[in-house]
Description:
alpha+beta
Amino acid sequence: MHIRFEDDALEDLRGIKTYLEPKNPAACERVLSNIFTTIDQLERFPFLGHPGEVDGTRELSVVRYDYVIVYSIPDDFHVDIERVLHTSMEYPPEN
């Protein structure tokens, strides 16, 4: 499986870095490293997470940190990372 990042997920990762880095650069590095380690696991184990709140998605919690990775599996070859969200965020957003 190949990992692909949707634009929203990339923006989420930028937001996490923008928020955490000025407060504690070392913590920022740990959090992002843990997020990417979790995402890397999906290459070998794409069904590791559980069915998501949005139809067609799955969700995987990041160990030790309050983040969840929202992803989809559109075909036999790809895992699409849709969002990387802090658990305090409302998801899915109300319309």
